[in-house]
Design brief:
The protein is mainly alpha-helical. It folds into two domains: 102 residues, Orthogonal Bundle (Non-ribosomal Peptide Synthetase Peptidyl Carrier Protein, Chain A); 43 residues, no CATH class. It has six helices and two strands. It has a two-stranded parallel sheet with strand order 1-2. The radius of gyration is 20 Å and the shape is elongated. The chain starts with a strand and ends with a strand.
């Protein structure tokens, strides 16, 4: 259920710019949308997203006791260890020649290629919008909040 909260335009603008600048500085890329995802779009996986969130919480002095990291992200061990690396290396040795054949035929020949390892546990990732809400509220909240400008401005 979506909650509505009144917010002043200047506060919302400042929060947007602050969180966007933080993410862009850390990621080295532009954040184009509130739907931008930390792992999927900005490539923060494993320890990278953990350190990003730690820095975010500490820099802006945010409450994080209700935040469950495992709900949103895979741990470093789930995505990168020696067994996974070996598996992906073996898959790559098969995948690369098959992809080369596809490219040489200008993609007229489609070949089923083996898949690289992906963790089986489902996670939700986290969006720029969720970080923005966390920043505005000063604490992590699972609730989806819609901010309405005070005085309709």
């Amino acid at each position: 259920m979506q909650e509505e909260r009144l917010v002043e335009f200047e506060k919302l603008k400042l929060a947007y710019i602050t969180v966007k600048n933080f993410l862009e500085k850390e990621a080295g890329e532009n954040v184009e949308s509130l739907k931008t995802k930390i792992a999927e779009d900005l490539s923060f996986y494993g320890e990278d997203n953990y350190y990003l969130l730690t820095k975010f919480v500490e820099k802006f002095e945010l409450e994080h006791s209700d935040f469950n990291y495992d709900e949103h992200f895979h741990s470093e061990g789930e995505i990168a260890n020696s067994e996974i690396a070996l598996y992906n290396l073996l898959i790559l040795s098969v995948w690369l020649p098959l992809k080369t054949i596809e490219l040489l035929t200008l993609n007229n020949v489609k070949i089923n290629k083996p898949s690289f390892y992906k963790p089986s546990r489902k996670v939700t990732d986290m969006t720029f919008k969720e970080l923005l809400t966390w920043y505005i509220e000063g604490k992590y909240t699972k609730s989806e909040i819609k901010y309405v400008l005070k005085n309709g401005i």
